[in-house]
TrEMBL record:
<protein>
    <recommendedName>
        <fullName>ABC transporter substrate-binding protein</fullName>
    </recommendedName>
</protein>
<dbReference type="Pfam" id="PF13343">
    <property type="entry name" value="SBP_bac_6"/>
</dbReference>
<keyword id="KW-0732">Signal</keyword>
<feature type="signal peptide">
    <location>
        <begin position="1"/>
        <end position="26"/>
    </location>
</feature>
<dbReference type="InterPro" id="IPR026045">
    <property type="entry name" value="Ferric-bd"/>
</dbReference>
Amino acid sequence: MMCKRCLLFVMVAMLGVAGVSGAAAAKLEKKVVVYSTHGESMLELVADEFEKETGVKVDFINLKGQLADRVRAEKVNPQSDVMYGAPSSVYLELKGEDLFAPFFPSWAGSISPLFKDAEGYWFGTIQTPVMMFYNSDMMSRETAPKDWSDLADPKYRGQLVFRNALSSSARATYASLLQQFEKQGQLDSGWDYLKAVDANTKRYYGSGSLQFQAVGRKEAPVSFAVLNSVIDNKIKNHMPLEIIDAQSGSPVITDGIALIKGGKHPNAGRAFVEFAGSPRIQALLANKFNRLPTHPDAIADSPGWMAETQFKVMDVDWGALSSKQSQWMQTWDSEVKDSGKDKK
């Protein structure tokens, strides 16, 4: 019987489509360095499983909102091998800055084109819908918002609490909403819309836990968050939360993975990409952390709600958004956030 580590060597060596020769894949380095936005407990689980499978030690650093800047700063002398986590808009930005090396893992062909780069520079391992929700102890389905546009209605003044734009999901959501206006040639109206939403917003929070606590203690009934966080708080914390399937759809963020160009441990980096996006690991994270997989086989082995929950997807051009999101969110932070407080 072939040992697990030998089997992985063979698997990586067979990926000729990735441009990895058998000689280059013949030996994995002793460690791999992973920069990520994922939580510590999730990273520890993937790292432990990878080390058990390959014998390669994983040095991971959770950089949250600083991940992209760190990768950029190290372009001349990369200190990491893999970027794991962060939304696809960030991957598109960094691909354009020549920071990734192309690599096609064996599972790449099984995921939707929505979740991957056609040239092999990054691939989605988690799909993350961002959805509105409300506290059903405070509001009925009939009186709850039906679409994102409703959040600007004055009748919801003081009934909204959100994350600030330091959150990658909030940044992507605010920018996605703004893009809907831009596509119609009405960008100024988009800024007016966000200011109207701000006027209805009671408070912004710097962390997801504080945001959900605010909704739970009835500070305000309406918010938005990534779907798995809503499900977590509904099931594990027994919060009376109801999801809103927005009429115009919800942004679906793709959390990705990519091989960093010039990394010091390229073979171990390729092996980690192969491993972390595999159906087994995607399903493991689905069952342990409620992360919705991109791989169909993983969804089949995941909690039932992942296959059963239906939601409309907002039409977002993530490629176009990648070049504008940072600038737009600087404007949001300086000109929109809390601009309506004096009107409340």
